[in-house]
């Protein structure tokens, strides 16, 4: 059998069978659509807005706003923690580093698993938005949903933009989670930075230094009116991602103690 | 092929300012069972972690299969199976699923999973979640993982830790079987000499980061017979001390009793002769502390 990076990814992937990762993904991806169904059921104002506007556009916007701002970064923090803690909890890091695999293979194959789970989250979230729309039609009679075509293209574009926005956070959290045995450290740092960025977000004009706000910014910003373009935001997100990921790898590579 | 599968030369290691390994040199012969002995905190695990590349080497040379480990890390690890401290097992997976993960990493065939489970006697419980295993079963699964790719060298750090007497005997028999039938070289660390002396062909004794003895088990036995402590009960203690003072080291062990260190067994007779010539009456002369366990204690407390 010839060893390849793909085999490394498969090795990593197999470790998360029977774990709570998939349940966690489904739970967090479904939270915002469930909340929006409840809000729409109890709020006549929201129901009215849904009936008078472009229902799909409005419904996607209110779902994505909460997800891009809070739910997705929180999911990424918890996901990275769970992935690294699977190794820590089972005393498995030392065995992993005693395998005939390069450090790059170990580091990046695990990171690919994180990315696959994030993409799975996006798929679930979009699916739950559609299910929520069906439920609103059935329960509350929001008939506009089925008078207009489902905006697949808009859903895809928002998903891609928010995904690019979350890349830097996923790399930073991955680095922290792999680096610290105590799960409270990456969790604490991640949540503090997320909340700190959200609190400061309204007061600070320049968001280029707040990676935890990139997903929200990539989703919500009216790029025609902003003093920096969408292109610049893409670039900043991708550069932050590459720098964070490489810093994490180099930190691991030069660590004196592995496992 | 080099006659030594692992060669460690002048290995020293600090944790902060604390020196944990001081100029340690190990030679592990091909095909041997090398017992690496020392009390807790002596530096055994640190040495093994350095050999596996889990700690960054500070000074010294580590050669595995004749090649420098740092430069040929992946090639070296392809030939090593290891168990360091607690078993590394994914507790939410069963034995077969655990082995499948390592099988892909070691690039070996599917049938090896069945073979190693058979070898460690876990075939019947291969589908049971590992978290439901006893410590002994976890330990055996960890050894199955170490054996999966049919390595030439097994590095086992305190593999009998937490096992009941039956488990220890099973483990011992398994290691002997692997060594004799499959020619595996085994480097096994332990703080219990009695456990290792039953299977080891070679022994290294480390204490406070220093290697105090290295050689074959017969050489250790020779050292044992060479270093005997005898207890002599006499009628006149002062006279006895005068008789023995020039040739022997001794301590007073009672009102009329001395403990005398003899470096060869002929010295036991010589001590008796000296006392008789001095006119001291010997009431009792017995050998004490000549087992390997006592020798181990003597070596590490010398």
UniProtKB/TrEMBL annotation, chain A:
Coiled coil: none annotated. The chain crosses the membrane at residues 21-38, 58-79, 111-139, 151-176, 183-204, 231-254. Keywords: Membrane, Transmembrane, Transmembrane helix. The keyword Transmembrane applies. Pfam families: ABC2_membrane_4. Signal peptide: none annotated. This is ABC transporter permease subunit.
Automatic annotation (TrEMBL), chain B:
The keyword Phosphoprotein does not apply. GO terms for molecular function: ATP binding; ATP hydrolysis activity. Keywords: ATP-binding, Nucleotide-binding, Transport. Residues 6-233 form the ABC transporter domain. It holds the Pfam family ABC_tran. The keyword Nucleotide-binding applies. Gene3D superfamilies: P-loop containing nucleotide triphosphate hydrolases. InterPro entries: AAA+_ATPase, ABC_transporter-like_ATP-bd, ABC_transporter-like_CS, P-loop_NTPase. This is ATP-binding cassette domain-containing protein. Belongs to the ABC transporter superfamily. It comes from the Bacteria. It comes from Chitinophaga oryziterrae. Signal peptide: none annotated.
